[in-house]
Amino acid sequence: MNIREVKLDDTEKIIQLMKEVENQSEFMLYGPGERNITIEGQRKQLEFIGKSSHSTILVAEETSGNLVGYLFAIGNSAMRKKHSVYLVIGILKEYTGKGIGTELFYRLEDWATTQNIQRLELTVVMENKAGIALYKKMGFEIEGTKRNSIIIDGTSFDEYDMAKLYKGD
């Protein structure tokens, strides 16, 4: 499995991957078919992120060239928040539990260190036990609970705010 930064040539593949992950996952922000992503809109986002020193998208790629996972790290342009990124991870269901999430996080930490990122943060639905286990394994801690934060198929769920702090170079 190759973990690398996304390229503009990946535009259509990343759109397809995001849609597949959202179709398979119980706990993503967007439900199946809810997100309307255009090739042009996604290409612009990838161009913007590619020029940013405080945002990146990592992908997990099979030797065949298929993308099977992603990790978005979205930074903030405000000087007071440039040390912090918000994370979104998605892995195709058949590839979960195979160490891909761990490898994505290791590669992200390498990137974050070179960019002087000192705070990684995310939210996770409390019932997403596999996600919480991965984040704790990677050194994230629960900072708080967002009550009634997300409604999925008419059911309200709480989310944890989680973060990992470390000193960049």
Q: Between the first and last Cα atoms, what is the distance in angstroms?
A: 28 Å
Q: Globular, elongated, flat, extended or rod-shaped: what is the shape?
A: globular
Class in CATH? Alpha Beta
Could you state the CATH homologous superfamily?
A: Gcn5-related N-acetyltransferase (GNAT)
Biggest sheet record: 7 strands, mixed
Number of strands: 7
At CATH level 3, the topology is Aminopeptidase
The stretches of 5 or more residues where confidence is low (pLDDT under 50) are none
Query: Which strands sit side by side, in order, in the main sheet?
Result: 1-2-3-4-5-7-6
Global Rg: 16 Å
Spell the H/E element sequence: EHHEEEHEHEE
Structural category is alpha+beta
Q: How many distinct folded domains?
A: 1
Quick tags:
alpha+beta, single chain, 169 residues, 4 helices, 7 strands, seven-stranded mixed sheet, Aminopeptidase
